[in-house]
């Protein structure tokens, strides 16, 4: 692989299909604004052993993909993915807000706040009520 191919591969986000024809966006531009993830992959870092990166696209931005290696954010996104999978849902049911905060030691790091979209929250409540009624009837 020549340098042109290597540059293209790196800029495309490691060959993920959903990153093709998109440029890498600046993660900091997502801070403190509500976004909805369209596609996401959690990948092992190519540069740091034992570390993971989240690569994702967001609704309303067809030009960019985003990548973060922040341990806290990646762990939170993995937890959310697990919950979505368990309930048979996709990322479009969530609104996320990425934030930068300071630790007690003064270090900055990123976190994600998640919120179910109101219509989904109502559907999940109905589903839970129906399941509870079904269990009572047994």
Characterize the structure shown:
With 138 residues, the protein is an alpha+beta fold. It has one domain. It is built from three helices and seven strands; from the N terminus they run αβββββαββα. It has helices at residues 3-11, 71-87, 118-137; strands at residues 23-24, 34-35, 37-44, 52-58, 64-68, 94-102, 108-116. The protein has a four-stranded mixed sheet, with helices on one face. Strands 2-6-7 form a three-stranded antiparallel sheet. Strand 6 (94-102) and strand 7 (108-116) form a beta hairpin. It is globular, with a radius of gyration of 18 Å. The model has no long low-confidence stretch (mean pLDDT 89).
Largest sheet: 4 strands, mixed
Q: Strands of the largest sheet, in order across it?
A: 1-5-4-3
Helix content: 25-40%
Q: What is the count of β-strands? A: 7
SSE pattern, N- to C-terminal: HEEEEEHEEH
The structural domain count equals 1
Assign the structural class, choosing from mainly alpha, mainly beta, alpha/beta, alpha+beta, or little secondary structure. alpha+beta
Mean pLDDT: 89
- Kindly report how far apart the N and C termini lie: 63 Å
- Shape descriptor reads globular
**Which percent band covers the strand fraction?**
25-35%
Q: Helix segment count?
A: 3
**Gyration radius from CA atoms, angstroms:** 18 Å
**Poorly predicted runs of 5 or more residues:** none
């Amino acid at each position: 692989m020549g340098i042109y191919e290597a540059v293209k591969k790196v800029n495309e986000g490691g060959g993920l299909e959903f990153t093709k024809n998109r440029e890498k966006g600046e993660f900091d531009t997502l801070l403190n604004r509500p976004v909805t993830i369209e596609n996401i992959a959690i990948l092992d870092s190519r540069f740091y052993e034992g570390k993971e990166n989240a690569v994702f696209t967001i609704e309303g931005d067809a030009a960019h993909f985003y990548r973060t290696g922040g341990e806290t954010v990646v762990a939170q996104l993995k937890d959310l993915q697990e919950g979505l999978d368990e309930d048979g849902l996709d990322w479009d049911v969530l609104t996320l807000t990425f934030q930068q905060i300071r630790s007690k030691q003064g270090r900055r790091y990123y976190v994600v706040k998640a919120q179910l979209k109101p219509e989904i929250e109502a559907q999940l409540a109905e589903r839970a009520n129906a399941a509870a009624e079904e269990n009572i009837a047994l």
